[in-house]
Design brief:
Blueprint: H1 3-11, H2 17-24, H3 28-40, E1 61-69, H4 78-85, E2 90-95, E3 102-108, H5 111-122, E4 128-135, E5 141-142, E6 145-146
Antiparallel strand pairs: 1-3, 1-4, 2-3, 5-6
Helix pairs in contact: 2-3
């Protein structure tokens, strides 16, 4: 497995195979073959663009939800995580160490829509014992891509 190739792809998946070959000292055929092998092995799971949604008129709201869960015998947290990740509102699900068990990133059109989803869907899942919601106010960096620049922070400043 070529971790240098993976790092190049994770930084910019649109980079050409020719450019990657030059940067890595490989042939285009070798690069193409390694990428295909990693896709088939499930190491490369997909390719995505990082979108700065705040720059669009139809921006969305996202929240980070802390879920505390009572795992079922023999299933652990996998059963709950599998249920949670099926919702289209859910962007990410992570098993955590520490105070809570699952970290869930949720998106919606409005704060109310996200709050309603949490109340009616997430908090009612069997085994979920509590939720704590943190609304994202601004994204500065996502998936290793800086989102700062040209955007104006309209929240203002506060000083004593």
């Amino acid at each position: 497995m070529n971790t240098k190739l993976l790092k190049l792809l994770s930084r910019d998946s649109r980079i050409s195979e020719g450019d990657m070959a030059t940067m890595l000292g490989l042939s285009e055929e070798e690069v193409r073959a390694e990428i295909r092998e990693m896709e088939e092995a499930g190491i490369i799971r997909g390719y995505k663009a990082v979108i700065d949604w705040e720059r669009l008129d139809d921006a969305y709201v996202s929240a980070i939800i802390e879920l505390k869960v009572t795992p079922k015998a023999g299933l652990g947290f996998e059963d709950v995580a599998a249920k949670v990740m099926k919702y289209p509102e859910v962007e990410s699900v992570y098993l955590m160490s520490g105070v809570y068990d699952l970290n869930v990133v949720v998106k919606g059109r409005t704060f109310h829509e996200v709050a309603k989803f949490i109340a009616k869907e997430l908090s009612t899942i069997e085994s979920v014992t509590s939720t704590a919601t943190h609304f994202v106010l601004r994204r500065y960096k996502e998936m290793d891509v800086e989102l700062l620049g040209n955007g104006v922070d309209e929240r203002g400043s506060y000083s004593l």
